[in-house]
Amino acid sequence: MSSQPRTDAEESHANARLGLLFGVGAYAIWGFFPLYFPLLEPASALEILCERFVFSLVFMAVVLTITRTWSRLSPVLRDRRALLLLSAAAALISVNWGTYIWAVNTGNVVEASLGYFINPLVLVVIGVVLLGERLRPLQWTAVGIATLAVVVLTLGLGKLPWIGLVLAFSFAGYGLIKKVVAVDPQASLTIETAVASPFALAYLVHLQLTGALVLGHHSTSTSLLLVGTGVITAIPLLLFGGAANRIPLTMMGLLQYLTPVIQFVIGVWVVGETMPPARWAGFVIVWIALVVFSYDGLRQGGRNRTARRAVQDGIDEVEAPI
Asked: What digits encode the pLDDT tens for the residues 160-213?
């Protein structure tokens, strides 16, 4: 007995469910990174960063070969503006990855999570400054509350939370460039890693010549884990791309908090980082800012959907036969 074909509604529901699984998978993998990078010691943060670029490029070359999608690179390679923007994106993600790896391997997982908590707020501020976008009142309120959190953390801990700020601004800048250039995710990741890989290879050769390279000179398990940095970098990015094409941006916006929540839990209850009252106060204020920001996004999303339905109903009435 043959099964009945699925209706459009059933197909849409299945597609959305798959997108949700992809999104959760991507953000969860990113969240558990603090458990992976310490396994790569005694490799330095800079060596890990370089190998992450090189092996990500190798992995993407394999993916493009298996899927026979090398042609996706052609339009980008012919576009000088896109290449320049992706080169800038490669520079920003180098700063982001390098800072994050160093933070995790030096016991600063909680502050690293702060960067990804405030990243959405930094992104909207960059949109105002560079793109001339206008913020709604609640968005300004969220930004103001987040700024207060940074002040509280700075005064309470006696130092600027620079790790979180570097991660937030570098990743927000990276996201802004990706939004402007609008390139296929596979092509984008391949070109970004290709831009950075020559510099990464040069540094790895330097480490080899000076006898400081860990890859291939330590345990087999460490070397395999170093090679695996390419896989764990590419897979969540590919899952993210699959999710973004299947579920609404509002849902993606809420899912993104899964990563810093997991990182925060790992930092406090697995790694055992200290949480003095000033740090708790700062994080609580950040979370309040995110609640305000998320509420505004959900409310605006509902208004946009209502407006689209009203427009569609008007079109249907005009097109209806008399």
From this structure: 999 999 999 999 999 888 878 878 888 999 999 999 999 999 999 999 999 999
Return the DSSP state at 320. Answer: S
pTM confidence score: 0.90
C-alpha to C-alpha distance for 16 and 22, rounded to whole angstroms = 10
Nearest to 50, CA basis, from 202, 190, 167:
202
Alpha helices in the chain, H assignment, sequence order = 8-31, 33-36, 45-67, 74-77, 80-105, 109-131, 137-157, 162-181, 185-209, 220-227, 229-244, 249-255, 258-265, 277-319
Give the mean pLDDT of the chain: 90
Positive/negative CA dihedral, 200, 203, 208, 214? negative
pLDDT of residue 254: 85
Q: What is 68-96 written as a DSSP string? A: T-GGGGHHHHT-HHHHHHHHHHHHHHHHH
